[in-house]
Amino acid sequence: MNVLPMPHIGVLPAGPLGTIADVSGVTVGHCTLAQGATQTGVTVVRPHRDDAYRHKVPAAASLINGFGKSIGLVQIEELGVLETPIALTNTFGVAAVAQAQIRAAIASNPQIGREWPTVNPLAFECNDGYLNDIQALAVEASHYARAFDSAACDFERGSVGAGRGMSSFDLKGGIGSASRVVSVASKAFTVGALVLANFGRLPMLTIDGVPIGRELAARRHTASRAATSKPEQGSIIMIVATDAPLAARQLKRLAFRAAAGLARTGSVYGHGSGDIALAFSTAYTVAQEADFISTPPILNDTRLDPLFQACADSVEQAIIDALWSAKTVTGRDAHARLSLHEAAPDLAQLLNSRTA
């Protein structure tokens, strides 16, 4: 199938890769489990190649709607740093992944939990139970290790890793990524986003301002239209990275702007939706054993608007990228989610018609 070029959101340019890996040092890896009723996996985002516990990066999270079962957010809120890579998986895989993160940190730093404080694992989740037999508890510690070891600048998106069993707008969702480059105080900075998209009902779907979901929903038979009228109960995890020198307080403000990009695609942050954004900066690290922290000059809050725009645009683009990159998946009990391109073979015409 010839894939239509994805529309570019906004006017800001993308980085050379067009993904979160445009932020120097950031890499992403997947472990995909795709056999029969097991359609799930793990995705790992590494902020840099050094030991994440010894060289922490500043970070902050914003809860847009807190219907979720993540691990690690309380300490992020209190201390404002990451101590492990960021892991994404299904809801029932969180415990196994968090334990794998703890074991990996201890293996590299035997002082953890003894001479040093304990480690704060950071694992996010979405419920992939429509396509995946989530009760099978298929995700294991080894899958986290495989995703971690495979982390690279060049990584797949769509129906891979944690995104394997995810649904978005009643279509196939999953992993998406994007980046934007901005000029602030005569310096170029990059903002990148990676999303685990598992939210939305088909009539809500809006791509680059075009409400194509209404047309696609109208084409489905009556029973399908009734199903897509149910309340939104999905979730999305939005990871935002930047090389701009920001404090944790500012990163929390940046993370909150992910909600703007999410809203543009049609989300209303439904009651049962877990919508969480986390932002981190690679501009400096916080050494575990340091008495004092050396930081570059931190941007003034009055200079953050370009970064806010880049965050919103890259998150919106990443959500579209997840839909654009995903392939049709059939899983548990013959449940299936069509890819966007299969569901809308005339996608080009839909996007070119700016009618409601």
TrEMBL record:
It holds the Pfam family Peptidase_S58. Belongs to the peptidase S58 family. InterPro entries: ArgJ-like_dom_sf, Peptidase_S58_DmpA. Transmembrane segments: none annotated. This is P1 family peptidase. It comes from the Bacteria. PANTHER family: BLR5678 PROTEIN, D-AMINOPEPTIDASE. Coiled coil: none annotated.
